[in-house]
Each structure stands twice: as C-alpha cells, then as structure tokens.
Amino acid sequence: MIANPWLLLLVGTAVVVLIMLGLWWLGIRNHNFSYVDIGWSVNFAVLAVLYAVLAPGWLPRRTLIASMFAAHGLRLGWHLAKRIIGEPEEGRYQQLRKDWGGGAASALNLKFLGFFEFQAVLNAFLTLPLLIACFNESRGFHVLELAGTAIFVIAIIGETSADAQLAAFKANPANQGGVCDVGLWRYSRHPNYFFEWLIWIAYAVFALASPWGWIAVAMPALMLHFLINVTGLKATEEQALRSKGERYRRYQARTSGFVPWFPKRIEQ
C-alpha cells in the first residue's frame, strides 16, 4: 500500500500519461486522433483499480467507489471504442487538424501530444474524489456515500439509455442524415452529457463524507465547464450544424440544450 496520497496521485498520473502517450502514437499510425476519447474514459477505470488496490482506506468503501469509477469508465470506453476503432477520424478532430494545420506534420503531432497529455493530467485531477474516499479509514458507510451511490445508479442508467437510443436511431437507414429527437433526445439535445455531469455530482456527494471531501465539489463544476464550453456541447453542436444545417437549427430552437425539459412549441 501507499500511505501518502500525494505519492499515489503522482503514480496514477504517471500511469495515465504513459497510456495517453501510447494512444497518441497509435493515432499517428492510423491517422485517427479520436483514440483520445477512449483513453479519457478507460483511464478512470485504470485509476480506480490502482487506488483501490494501493490506498489504505476501509476496503468496502474503496471497493464501492472504485467500482463506480470503473463501471463508468469502462462502459463509456466500450461505447466509444465501437464508434471509433476501424472508422474514420471523427469530425471534431478533423476540424482540429484544420485549425492547427498550416505547418509541418511534426508540429501538428506535437500539438496533439499536448492535447492527449492534458487529458491524462485532467483524468488524474478529476479522480480526486476517488482518491479522497480511498484514504478514508473510518468504518461503515455514511448517508452521503449511500446518496452518492443512488445518484450514480440513476445517472449511469440515464447515460446508457441515451447512448443506446442514439445508436438505434443511427442504425436505421431511414434516419440517415437526420436529427435524433426520440426518447431522452426529445427533451435534451445532449442527455448523454447531462447524465455524465450527474455522475460527477454523485462522486462529489460520495466524497463529502471523507476528510477533505469538500475538494471534490470542484469536480462537477469543472466537468460542467468542459462539457459545455470545451470538448462537449460546443464542439458537438458546431459539427452538427456543419453536417445537418437547418434541420439541426430547428432542433436547437425547440429542444433544451442540456438539462432535460419539455420541448418548445414552434410556430410553423
């Protein structure tokens, strides 16, 4: 076991940095930097196992919080892998190539290396709720830990359902080029991102029961910023407008952007 949380955090960071380095190299070979999304997701599961095994906290607590992180990371990683492996690079990363291009290929690759490793460092930072809980040696589950677990179950079911509904819509040839507005997608343009954010709220609530758990409150706030302004909604909506045009604009006009809500009635 590693009794110093800072040392364990350093070890975890080094591990995910190496994983992202390998995925970056694979992205260069296959001309597909979408692999960063798989690494981003699976790294949470890797850190969950690492912290659960090496931290000195109460074993049932370590097992529970690590299982939550691992289930979340592996489910999302598998979902993304099916969409990425063997397919052309996603539009968001093709656009980044254009935005960052204009110079030598080596310069572009270095920019993507920085992008990959930034994701790795962010992985390590965002798992602080996990690390904090894994160092809590008090026996017995706190009511906040039970509440966090309940929120997590609701959120993971919601995110899985949203992903399944979108996949089923895309699999129907009749929907080719259309905008998914069925199921949860009728009430939010990004229900998958909403439930992803709810998962991070669950982690924060769980960690609040541990010493220094207040630090975890920053994680859902930071994740909300990234989901809305950086790699999530903003990039996804820009790509949808480029590919679907007016159909997506009409969808934007009637459907909540993030929090699920009843669609607006649009006058024809």
What does this structure look like?
It is a single chain. The protein has 268 residues and is mainly alpha-helical. The protein has helices at 5-30, 35-54, 59-84, 91-100, 105-126, 128-134, 143-171, 191-207, 218-230, 233-244, 246-254. Helix 1 packs antiparallel against helix 5 (105-126), helix 3 (59-84) packs parallel to helix 7 and helix 8 packs antiparallel against helix 9. The N and C termini lie far apart (65 Å). The model has no long low-confidence stretch (mean pLDDT 92).
Notable traits:
mainly alpha; 2 domains; 71% helix; 0% strand
Annotation field: number of helices: 11
- Mean pLDDT across the residues is 92
Order of helices and strands: HHHHHHHHHHH
The N- and C-terminal alpha carbons lie at a distance of 65 Å
Helix content: over 70%
Q: What is the domain total for the residues?
A: 2
Residues in β-strands, percent: under 5%
Shape: globular
Please summarize the sheet with the most strands: none
**Which radius of gyration do the C-alpha atoms yield?**
20 Å
Uncertain runs with pLDDT below 50, 5 residues or more? none
Structural class: mainly alpha
Number of strands: 0
Give a brief description:
The chain is mainly α and 268 residues long. It has helices at 5-30, 35-54, 59-84, 91-100, 105-126, 128-134, 143-171, 191-207, 218-230, 233-244, 246-254. It is built from 11 helices and no strands.
How does the SSE layout of this entry go?
Layout: H1 5-30, H2 35-54, H3 59-84, H4 91-100, H5 105-126, H6 128-134, H7 143-171, H8 191-207, H9 218-230, H10 233-244, H11 246-254
Helix pairs in contact: 1-2, 1-5, 2-3, 2-5, 3-7, 6-8, 7-8, 8-9
